[in-house]
Amino acid sequence: MSDEPYLFNVGSGVRVYPLAGLTVEFFSGYGDSETRVGGNIGGGIEFDVARNLSMGAELKGQLVNDFSRFNSAFKVTYKF
């Protein structure tokens, strides 16, 4: 799975970003296997809470033929 986010500054210390990417899923079991290709869509928001620290949230959907799912995440980022 690969996503390419681009951050948009929308305020002092606040950024939003869309997500778009490619998904390759490998399924195997009961003697057979299958590879499926699909896409990722989503977005997120990030807030600076200190000079080197930010927090955010993200929602992402994986769309693969008859198998799709949505994930949510909360993140903390330390900037070196």
What does this molecule look like?
This protein has 80 residues and is mainly β. The protein has one domain (2-78): Porin. Helices cover 0% and strands 81% of the residues. It contains no helices and 6 strands. The chain has strands at residues 2-3, 8-11, 14-29, 32-50, 53-64, 67-78. Strands 1, 2, 3, 4, 5 and 6 form a 6-stranded antiparallel sheet that branches. The radius of gyration is 16 Å and the shape is elongated. The mean pLDDT is 88.
- Annotated CATH architecture: Beta Barrel
Report Rg. 16 Å
In total, the number of strands is 6
- Percentage of residues in helical conformation: under 10%
Low-confidence stretches: none
Distance between termini?
26 Å
Largest sheet: 6 strands, antiparallel
Remind me, CATH topology?
Porin
What are the defining features of this structure?
six-stranded antiparallel β-sheet, 0% helix, elongated, Porin, single chain
Question: Which helices and strands, and how do they pair?
Answer:
Elements: E1 2-3, E2 8-11, E3 14-29, E4 32-50, E5 53-64, E6 67-78
Antiparallel strand pairs: 1-3, 2-3, 3-4, 4-5, 5-6
Summarize the structure.
The chain has 80 residues and is mainly β. Helices cover 0% and strands 81% of the residues.
